[in-house]
Amino acid sequence: MSRKARKDIDQDETIFHIVCRGNNQKKTFLRIRDYKKLLSIIRQVKKELPFYFYSYNLLPNHFHLLIERQDASISKIMGRVNFLYAIYFNHCYNRSGHVFQDRFYSNVIDKENYFWSAGRYIDLNAVHAGLAKTPESYRWNSFPIYCQEDYDDDLIDRDRFLSYIGMYDLKQARQEYTRFVYAGIDSEEVRN
Fold first, then answer.
1. Which of 163, 172, 21 is nearest to 85 (CA)?
2. Which run of H or E residues covers position 32?
């Protein structure tokens, strides 16, 4: 039986919330170097198949990404990321077979109504999973980047993400976003 085709997969500037789960709910990150390797692979694939990268949260048995595609389809981007990570993971741990459960899950994000909410959901995922008390205290997510006054790396496209709210002052937008994330810590709506 063939797999169900993904909707809206090849539209330019489509934003996706991506989730990749470990096969059989097993951990996909066993050591600190594994988290670092996935981020390195994302950086590499971002150069090979340009896309905008807004948010991530890497948890022990799955990860969340917020990506806006450019030319390459989200399937091609995520296929490359997952393939390279599986090769690394299987080689490192002397294993074979699938690292991830099924294909990745993707949900198209409405820029107007849900964009920052998707970022907040991702940034709070470790807090809601009980892995951290605050989003900036969890090492493997993008929220600390939004807390920094100055950011000069190219992994996260922070200014583009912040500009979607329509504010011209990016410092003010950054402060608004951090307040918005903190407002969601105890929200049942964000947990679901």
1. 21
2. helix 32-48
Beta bridge partners of residue 62, listed in sequence order = 21, 59
pTM of the entire predicted model: 0.91
Q: Which residue type, as a one-letter code, is found at position 136?
A: E
Backbone dihedral region for residue 171 (phi beyond 0: left; psi -120 to 50: alpha; all else: beta): alpha
Helix (H) or strand (E) holding 63: strand 62-69
Token look-up 């950054």 returns 174
The CATH number that domain 15-185 falls under is 3.30.70.1290
Q: Given pLDDT bands bounded at 50, 70 and 90, which one contains residue 188?
A: low
CA separation for the pair 86, 92 (Å, rounded): 10
Kindly state the average pLDDT of the residues 74-103: 93
Domain ranges of the chain: 15-185
Q: Which of 153, 157, 10 is nearest to 70 (CA)?
A: 10
Q: Is 14 left (phi over 0), alpha (psi -120 to 50) or beta?
A: beta
The average pLDDT across 150-156 equals 92
